[in-house]
Description:
This protein is of the alpha+beta class and 227 residues long. The protein contains 5 helices and 7 strands; from the N terminus they run ααββαββαβββα. The chain has 2 domains: 1-57; 59-225, Protein Transport Mog1p, Chain A (3-Layer(aba) Sandwich), CATH 3.40.1000. The longest helix has 57 residues, at 2-58.
Amino acid sequence: MSLTISKAFHSMEGFFIGSNMVRPQMERDVASYLGIHWMVVGLLCFLSLQVSAEQDASKAVSLNKLIPSLESLGEMWTQTKLTYYVDPLSKPPYYILPDQPDHEAFKAFLDRRVLSLGCESLLRIHYGKGELAINSGGHHLMIHRWDQFNRLEEEWDGILKKAPFNQDELPEFGEAACWAHHDLFQSLAFRRGNYLVRIECGRSETVYGLLDLAEAIDELIKKTTAK
């Protein structure tokens, strides 16, 4: 009897020792599996964003189709002046204000700007609301279009880093938006699809002009890229 008990004891002891030896291996296998699982999930999310960006790029339209008219903005808006654009989808692909001196040098500057941002197109246009004066009434609109999703992400991250910490009342435009206040001006930025929009005005202005322009442009982007 005692011999049988002794054998049973040693058998159980061997089982527990073996279990203790196997357990770390099992834990490593589980940890490895979970690591691979989340890596695959992250990769699928990234690929999904890439596919979405490619689909948006396939619906790209020329930037001059995204310029709100004065009539659509309302009677308080009195002036508009296109400053420049670089856009392969537009005809002509370049526009520079006629009174801009040395067009060739400015065109070269725009090419460098597009290259440094990694974007495909950019446009700048000025709007006037009410009576224009120094730092009063002027609103500046900039639209960019990217064909590379990662470069758009880099630019947006840079805007967010420079934005003020107080973002309690975020503007509800696009897929993401933020306020950006500076010493001499305030601005609203938002992104939708492959487009990034930034609107600026003087610090003395109310935000209603920024909101009017953002709403009009966002609607144009949704309308034109949905086709």
